[in-house]
Structure formats: structure tokens, C-alpha cells
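hey so i finally got around to running the thing on that chain from the lab meeting. sorry it took forever, my laptop kept dying and i had to restart like 3 times. anyway pasting the input first so we r on the same page abt which one it is
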Amino acid sequence: MVLCKYRQRGCDAKLTKERMSEHERSCPFINSTTQTEDSSCIRTSPQNDAKCQFESIGCDFRGTDTELLEHEYTSLQRHFRFLLIFCLKSDLRALEAHTKLQSVSSDLRHKIQQYVISLRNLQDESRADHIMLTSLMEEIIVVKRNFEENNEHVHERNVAAEAIMRQKDEQIAALHRQFQEISDSNAVLRYRVGVLEDFAFDPLTRLCPRAPPGPMIVVQIQDGEHEMDGNIMEICNFSEKKRQAMTNRHLTLISDPFITNSVNMKLKVFLNGEEFEGETCMTVYIVIVRGLYDENLNWPFMGKFTLRVFDPESSSYTFVDSFDADPSHFSFQKPCTERNIGYGFLRSIRHSELERLVKDDKLVIKVTIMAV
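ok and heres what got predicted. didnt touch it at all, straight out
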């Protein structure tokens, strides 16, 4: 249902669209105005102006509904001209679109042909790749088969190598046992050589003890402490003893015995001792000797040994080296003979440093023992 277009003039008809067309041609309110409105106001108001139905093709007429009907009747030729121009423009646009479409279609056909050629090339390459992959797979299968065969041979060789390694390990263990036996025998021989050195010791090369000389120097233990008073030894006539040591490498200077924590000890000094970095050093050993109370003591002997040498320039003792007693070493076990094998400072002082430490042809050594 639609309303009459003259409803603003007072028509309240409400009909279907088909009947409304017939009604509007004979509507009694075509030439009438409302009681509250001025006819001139309706004519000039933009809200009551009607547009020509050919506005979309160029007609710009505006007016009342009556004027619009009269305009449409009197301007048919003008409207046909607008319509013709619109159709011609539409044909031109269609022709341009058709031309553009043909150009685009030609480009698309050209691109499609290129894509078809590329696709054929890709198919050819894919066939070649498939052939190559098939060949590679066959080669991989052959390599895998060869690897499995070689792996079996490698496993057999590994088993044989492990057997050889076990045999070599047993041989190495046997050689190690032989080396230990030889080392033990060497230690016994060294001990016996030391004993012979004591018996063959030249009294002229004996170490000069602190004055007055006596058979034994006793190191007293302070009450409540474990640090001992250091045993001080003076090597007199040093230059002569050094000269003798250079001609006789095994020349040994042995101190008088001293007691530390009820354990009898001696010092052995080799002026021509071990070599270090191409230079000869003086070597000092600690030797545990048999005592009267060894049966009542705790073994092995445990303690820290510190070697110092008196420096005449500073009038003080200079630290040289220190070591802790090794409880597993036989040098610190209970003596089974007159004395144990010496243990000590192999590279005590280099000969180049000894000269400045000698004053009045005398070298002073101090050994401090911290018993545990």
C-alpha cells in the first residue's frame, strides 16, 4: 500500500501501487492547497520541488508536481536528446570497456601460454628429478647394505681389539708390579748405600754443630704447643767442603742427632745435590734414626718440616721450602734398622744463591718441625 503524492494538499488516499497511478491522474487535490499553507510557499519551497525523472541523464528541471507533468509533456524532444546522448556515451564506454577487455584478454592468453610452457618445463624437470631420486635411492640402498656388511667386520675387529687391549692391560699391570718391585729394591739399595756412607764418613767433612759440640742436640717441646724449637746447624769451612763435594758428588754432611717429639732425627746435606733448570742445588734430607723409645711412640711420624737459611744481609732467617710428612712413605715409619731412608728438600738452594748466604766461610741452616 502507498500514499497519494498529493497527501500534503489534503488527499488521504491509501491504495495499491497500480490503483494509485490511476488515482493520482484524477486526484481532486491536484490543483488545491491546504487551508494552513500558502500556495506560493509550496511552489518555492525546496521541500515541495519535484525533480524530473530524466535528471540522471542531464535534465535539471525542478518544480511542482503540476509543472513537472507539464514539463515532461512539453520536453519530450529534449528528453529524447538527453537519452540519445546518454546511450551514445554508454556505447562509447562499452566500446572502451570491450577494447580494454580484449587487451586484457590478450594479455591473459599470453600469460596463460607462458604458464603452460613453464608447467610443461616443470613437468619435464620433475620427471628428471624423479629419475635422479630413484637412482639416488638405489645408491643409498647399496651403501646401506655395504655399511651393514662393514659394520659386522668392524664389530669383529673391535672385539679383537678389545681382546688385545685386555692383554696389553695385563702386560702393563705385570710391568707395573715389576716396576714396584724394582722401586722397592732400589729403595733398599739406597738405604744400604746410606748406611755405607755413614760408616765411610770422613770426620773432616762432618757438619760443625753449634758450640759446644755434644753427642745429641735435644729440641724441647713447649707446654701445650706442638711447634718445636728449630735445630740450627752451622756448616763451617764451607768453601773447602763445597770444593770436595764438586769432585765427589756423593759427599754427605750429616748432623748430630736431635730429638723431636721423642723421635730421633738427623739431617743429611749434599752440597752437590740435585740439578734444577741446569743449575746444581744444595739438597737437605730429614732422616729418622732408631731410638730407645720407638716401641712406645705412634707411627708413622706426622709433622710439617720447614727449611730456612740465615741471611747475613738482613740478619734473619729466609724461608726456603716446606713439606708435610707423607704417612704412606717408609721414610716416616718406625725404623727397622739403624736409620730410615732420607726424605726432604731436593732442590733447596741453588749454588748461585749460596754465595751471598755464606759469611766468614760458614753457612747456617735452620729446620723447624711442627709435629701433628
